[in-house]
Amino acid sequence: MVDPATALKYESSLRLHVVPVFGRRQLRTIKPSEIAAWVAGLDARFGASTARTAYLVMHGTLEVAVDDEAIKRNPAKARVVKVPAEKGGKTTAWSDEVVLRIVEGHPAQYWPIASIGAARGLRQASCSGWPRRTSISRRWLSEFGGR
């Protein structure tokens, strides 16, 4: 059993990435090379995290098929299928001075959003409701003393 947030993430990945590509295929016709190309495409288009999640959903689905004897082997386990590594880089928190400069760089009515977001350690997209892959430009950020 997984927590509700993870279940939602898996369902979304199944609906958006797995079913559109493999949903109408017979399981025995899915080749490891197709899965490898699919994972690589997801990584290039959406990033490693999305590709890994979609792979986990696909892999798990195929494992159930193996257990139910619908297929003999899980093609997602083949050596040719390369799942992107997690990018566990070091995260550096902004100093209080940088946060204050960013907060003050917004109109006063938005100060609470930036202040609460910084205090809670939220990413900028989580605070603003921006799409996940949107980011503040480096030029704008550098004006406020960020990295």
Automatic annotation (TrEMBL):
Residues 2-41 form the Integrase SAM-like N-terminal domain. SUPFAM superfamilies: DNA breaking-rejoining enzymes. Keywords: DNA-binding. It comes from the Bacteria. It holds the Pfam family Phage_int_SAM_3. The keyword DNA-binding applies. One of its GO terms (molecular function) is DNA binding. InterPro entries: DNA_brk_join_enz, Integrase_recombinase_N, Integrase_SAM-like_N. The keyword DNA-binding applies. One of its GO terms (biological process) is DNA integration. Signal peptide: none annotated. This is Integrase SAM-like N-terminal domain-containing protein. It comes from Kribbella shirazensis.
